[in-house]
Write a structure and sequence with these properties.
Structural class: alpha/beta
Strand order of the largest sheet: 15-14-11-12-13-16
Strand content: 25-35%
Distance between the termini: 42 Å
Number of domains: 3
CATH topology of the largest domain: D-amino Acid Aminotransferase, Chain A, domain 1
Number of helices: 13
Helix content: 25-40%
Amino acid sequence: MPSLAPIRVIMTGAGAPGAPGILESLQLVTERQVTVIGADMNPHASCASMVDEFKTIPPASNPDFIPVLSEFAAQKKANAILPLVTCELPILSRERETFAQYGCQAVVANENVIAVSGDKGRMLTALEEKGVPVPRSRSVTSVEELRAAADYLGHPSAPVVVKPCVSNGSRGMRILDRSVDRLKLLLKNKPTSAYSNLDEICGVLEGADPFPDYLVMEYLPHQEYSVDILAKDGDALVIVPRQRDRVRGGISIEATAVCDTDVIDYSKVVTKTLGLDGVVGIQVILDSDDLPKIIEVNPRVQGTIVLSTAAGVNMPYLAIKQALGEPFDIPEIRWGTKMVRRFTESFTSDDGRSGMLGDFAQLGPI
């Protein structure tokens, strides 16, 4: 029998790629009943038919975002809001009290932590100033600065990475590498390849007004890790590195929970230095000396955090408990747990029914 009072959780971004795994993590909780209410700007979001209830909400850029979401939270007597959408984080952090007056806690860090960690340029500078090893990089605000930064980092002899300082999901990221076989790239790779060249990128950005804040960074081609962290005011309570074994479009297709002490120790230093709080994800790549260096911070639940759940640590639920001020124990991590991602489908019909294939197959043969 459940031992704790039931809770109701609004999960925004119910159409995000990692939403089904995060939803399943919450549905696996046995110590209490957890009702998950999905919310998304897309009425056909992937989890719309999988959650207990669903609500279509405006995007975070819409002035009605907070009024609609807070009224809905009050109506549903929600205990917590778990956002999966990066652009919602600073808004929800600023409006914490709006939700708190209804007894609802937003599972987000404070606005300053989100601002610094969510900007790759500011994040790397903040760490470097404190002596934390980071990739060599420069922030640029013009095409001329971009070319100079690439030259400073050894391009074209050495590959470099360019990406917006504020973005997520690999949007705007390109690897500039003259050694890549262009014919093979054309014939063998899908058109979503991240490889490009300096002239092409500069040619596109010359037309940008205003010019976006961009980061030029050394290219680290070695093993990459996504690290799930649950923190409290800069102290890492639990750290689960996920080795990214195969990646497609910036999303892990295969991954393994690994007890890499160097990555864990480095993640502790990053967490302390940036004052990270709540559930956070960081991206780390090994350099040529096999030393971990950070390339990105996601101050929210990461999409593939479901692997940490499978490895014994249900971080989405622990983050909610932490936001609610409830005590919890840190479970033992089952290192070596491997994940292989697969695609699945949900369905809707003209008469308003929704569900998985089994729900529709029960309607009878075609």
